[in-house]
Amino acid sequence: MKNRKLWVSLGMMMVVSAACLFAEDTAAAAQAAGGIASAIKYIAAALAVGIACLGGGAAVGKIGAAAMGAMSENAELSGKALPFVGLAEGICLWGFLVALFIIIM
């Protein structure tokens, strides 16, 4: 009996939620059309940052491992390896700038 009450109450909540979901007016529909464009803009910005950071992370991982291996053999190579790590991290910054321009424009 207890289980039946739970299912009846869940069913009633689903019916009420469905009624509220499909009840929209024309102003909300017009606003939703503009909302879709801004949503796509934010998704594009997130993809720009995400893909750039994944690429930058992979590059820093490989360059960092190679730099640590080289420095273990010759300590003087640390200054030569650091700019390459910085260039790989710059990829993430370019992705952020692209995302910023997407959001602004």
How would you describe this structure to a colleague?
The protein has 105 residues and is mainly α. The protein has three helices and no strands. It has helices spanning 2-22, 26-73, 78-104. The protein is elongated, with a radius of gyration of 26 Å. It starts with a helix and ends with a helix. The model has no long low-confidence stretch (mean pLDDT 80).
Question: What distinguishing features does this structure have?
Answer:
0% strand; elongated; 105 residues; 3 helices; mainly alpha; single chain
Annotate the secondary structure layout:
Layout: H1 2-22, H2 26-73, H3 78-104
Quick structural summary:
The protein has 105 residues and is mainly α. The protein contains 3 helices and no strands. Helices cover 91% and strands 0% of the residues.
Number of distinct beta strands: 0
How far apart lie the N and C ends? 59 Å
Q: Averaging pLDDT over every residue, what do you get?
A: 80
Order of helices and strands: HHH
Total helices: the number is 3
What fraction of the residues are assigned to beta strands by DSSP? under 5%
Helix content: over 70%
Could you name the ranges where pLDDT drops below 50 across 5 or more consecutive residues? none
Structural class: mainly alpha
Radius of gyration over all CA atoms, rounded: 26 Å
Shape: elongated
Main sheet makeup: none
